[in-house]
Each structure stands twice: as C-alpha cells, then as structure tokens.
Design a protein that fits this description.
single chain; 161 residues; alpha/beta; Uridine Diphospho-n-acetylenolpyruvylglucosamine Reductase, domain 2; 2 domains; four-stranded mixed beta sheet; 6 strands; 28% helix
C-alpha cells in the first residue's frame, strides 16, 4: 500500500458496515482475491476490503468517509478491463458495482437511458430492445456501463454510431 493513503482499520470496516450493511462489506480473502486482477497483463494487487454498495447514497457516504480518512478507493465493474484500471494498486477499499445493476429510467423519446453503473451493457440492451433502442458500443466482453465509461471503452460499432 502506498504511504500516501491510510490503511483500512477495523474501525473503518465497522463504519462501512454501518453505512452499507454488514452483508455488503467483506474483508474475507476469498472476496479480495476475486477482485484483485482484471483481464489485463498487470499484476494482481489486494485491496483491504471489498464493498458492494446498492445505492448512489451509499456510494457517496463511502466516498465521503474514504476522503476524510485518506483511504484509496478503486471502482470495479466486472473486471473485464484490459488496461488495469480496476486493480486496487493502493490497497484500500475495492468498491464493486455488481449489485447496482438496474435500469432506472428509459427516455425513449430522447434515446436516453438512466442506469446504475454495474449493469452489463448486454443486459441493458436486452431490456432496451422492447423500446426499439440499443446502446451501440460493443467492447467484446460483457462489460458494465460504468466500467466502459470509466475506461473510455468503445467497440466495433462505435464509429458507425
């Protein structure tokens, strides 16, 4: 862990559980190992805790705590990144959006959709099809929309649309 960041203490883990619920916080090595490497060639790095927020407010509350305590936070979609940007190189908190995977609202008249960051783009397209809409980029893997935005991912249909 970089000395620029503070460690995740048992007190911080207790605060995370208070914010998100105990079922959405884990310091178990099995959970940490599942989230320490993406699809890139970069080496794995362990976080100190994995969290699964389920709301935007939970994300905001965790980020406020991490900022106040100088704790590194790494976002995680589903780990399909080829760039290494979802690897928690500074330890800290790994924030996975796997449980924030819903469409909030479809604005069919404006060709827009509001989603949570953890929705896989293929799942989103399946749901958008009933409105005659689709999200054109196709990065190949079943990336999440949040992960695609975070890594500026595109795909084979990007130029056309």
């Amino acid at each position: 862990m970089s000395s620029a960041f503070s460690p995740v203490t048992p007190e911080i883990i207790a605060q995370l559980k208070s914010i998100l619920g105990a079922e959405n916080v884990s310091a178990a090595q099995a959970d940490i190992a599942l989230h320490n490497k993406d699809q890139s060639f970069h080496p794995a790095h362990d976080s100190e805790v994995v969290i699964w927020p389920t709301s935007a407010q939970g994300v905001a509350d965790v980020l406020r705590l991490a900022n106040e305590q100088h704790i590194a936070v790494t976002p995680w979609g589903v780990g399909t990144s080829l760039e290494g940007n979802s690897i928690p190189v500074h330890g800290g908190i790994l924030m996975t959006f796997e449980r924030m995977n819903r469409i909030i609202q479809v604005h069919a008249d404006d060709f827009q959709v509001t989603v949570q960051p953890g929705i896989p783009y293929k799942d989103m397209n399946e749901q958008l099809a009933r409105f005659g809409l689709f999200f054109p980029p196709d990065p190949g893997a079943n990336a999440t929309v949040g992960g695609m935005l975070a890594s500026n991912a595109s795909g084979i249909r990007t130029v056309k649309y």
